[in-house]
């Protein structure tokens, strides 16, 4: 099963919304520019030029740059991220793993590749998360609600009786993944060898998980 990209899901969400074609074009341009230049360095003139509309048209539909960003983040939070989570869960639960290492290898490499494929959109989201605690809290709650009940049982079944695994057991993995992913999110021109990174993460966490 091929999980849709965030860009595809966002385009579908916008197409199904009540937004006009010009409004959708403005939001898509906003996404590209905010990812490449950052929110502060992007002007409404930049957005209008990339969207192929006049700056007056931008202001006709949106009062200011902040309103454009809010209009972009709303479908990401309300429909796109949940859809991404649900597709990933549906893909994962159909897998049959012979060991904890095999399961973690799939999960780590799959999510790292997903982040690389969607790094520009994720960069915009992370930029906003840094200044918007509510957005971070809602994204975290959504992830826990969708991921944990479906994925955690697949992992804890490999527990040793003397060392039961819990959600806390896997937290170091997330931190290690971030150390590899953050540089390529912040600087999209950088490259990451996902297989090598996955090997290195597993080498660090598996001794403790299998103890």
Automatic annotation (TrEMBL):
Name recorded for this polypeptide: TetR/AcrR family transcriptional regulator
Domain HTH tetR-type: 20-80
UniProt xrefs under SUPFAM superfamilies: Homeodomain-like
Gene source species: Lacticaseibacillus jixianensis
Entry-linked PANTHER family: HTH-TYPE TRANSCRIPTIONAL REGULATOR RUTR (PTHR30055)
DNA-binding region in chain numbering: 43-62
Keyword field: DNA-binding
Pfam families according to UniProt: TetR_N
Domain of life, source organism: Bacteria
Upper taxonomic lineage: Bacteria, Bacillati, Bacillota, Bacilli, Lactobacillales
């Amino acid at each position: 099963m091929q999980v849709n990209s965030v860009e595809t899901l966002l385009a579908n969400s916008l197409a199904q919304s009540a937004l006009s074609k010009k409004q959708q074009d403005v939001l898509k341009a906003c996404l590209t520019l905010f990812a490449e230049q950052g929110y502060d360095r992007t002007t409404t003139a930049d957005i209008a030029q990339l969207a192929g509309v006049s700056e007056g048209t931008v202001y006709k539909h949106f009062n200011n740059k902040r309103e454009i960003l809010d209009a972009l983040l709303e479908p990401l939070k309300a429909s796109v991220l949940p859809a991404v989570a649900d597709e990933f869960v549906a893909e994962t639960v159909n897998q049959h793993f012979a060991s904890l290492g095999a399961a973690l290898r799939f999960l780590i490499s799959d999510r790292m590749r997903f982040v690389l494929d969607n790094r520009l959109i994720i960069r915009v989201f992370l930029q906003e998360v840094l200044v918007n605690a509510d957005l971070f809290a809602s994204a975290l709650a959504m992830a826990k609600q969708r991921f944990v009940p479906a994925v955690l049982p697949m992992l804890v079944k490999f527990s040793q009786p003397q060392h039961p695994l819990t959600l806390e057991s896997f937290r170091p993995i997330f931190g290690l993944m971030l150390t590899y992913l953050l540089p390529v999110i912040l600087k999209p021109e950088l490259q990451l060898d996902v297989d090598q990174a996955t090997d290195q993460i597993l080498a660090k966490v598996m001794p403790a998980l299998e103890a």
